[in-house]
Amino acid sequence: PSAAPRPPAKPRDALVVQLVHGGRLLGDDDEERRLDELGIAEGAVLHSFVSAKVDTAQKLSCYPHRCTTDGGRVVHVLGMKFPQSSRIACRFGRVLAAAVLEDDGLEGGVAQLRSTAPPHPAGPVTLGVSFDGGATWMDG
User: Fold this and answer.
1) Comparing C-alpha atoms, which of 20, 25, 18, 21 is closest to residue 40?
2) What tens digit of pLDDT does each residue of 111-132 get?
3) CA dihedral for 19, 21, 23, 29, sign (positive or negative)
4) CA dist., res. 52 & res. 87, Å (int)
5) Is residue 18 a contact partner of residue 135, using CB atoms and an 8 Å limit?
6) Sheet containing 111-116: order of strands
7) How much is the pLDDT for 48?
8) Residue 13 has what DSSP assignment?
């Protein structure tokens, strides 16, 4: 009997394990540091989670650029490549909103998310995107 075909393998760089110690997400700049320099000693508790790997150097843009403080306007966020994730969120200033991946950018080179702007205070609002439920953010 022949073996059943395997599903296509995900690229090895599609997921990343992130470590949290003392309420702080350990980042790339911590990679070359010794554990004691990070405050990690014998018996220390580390938490970890797996999330989609994201190119954080990519530029984000959005349209439209304005909406009322009442919110409710659909906003599209563009980048070069977004990972598939079930935990995508946008942050408008400090207010979180769900987001949906419309195009990952693999074929056309332009990735797109859709979110609805929440009510927020008047004035400029920074936009952030998370693919891990808000543990890490890309700011645009």
Assistant:
1) 21
2) 999 999 999 888 888 999 999 8
3) negative
4) 9
5) yes
6) 61-63, 74-79, 111-116, 95-103, 89-92, 127-130, 138-139
7) 77
8) T
Beta carbons of 99 and 113 less than 8 angstroms apart: yes
CB 79 within 8 A of CB 111: yes
Residue 98: how many CB atoms within 10 A of its CB? 12
Q: What is the pLDDT of residues 34-72, one digit of tens each?
A: 888 888 888 888 877 776 777 778 899 999 988 888 999
Torsion sign over Cα 81, 126, 69, 64: negative
How many Å apart are CA 71 and CA 90, to the nearest integer?
13
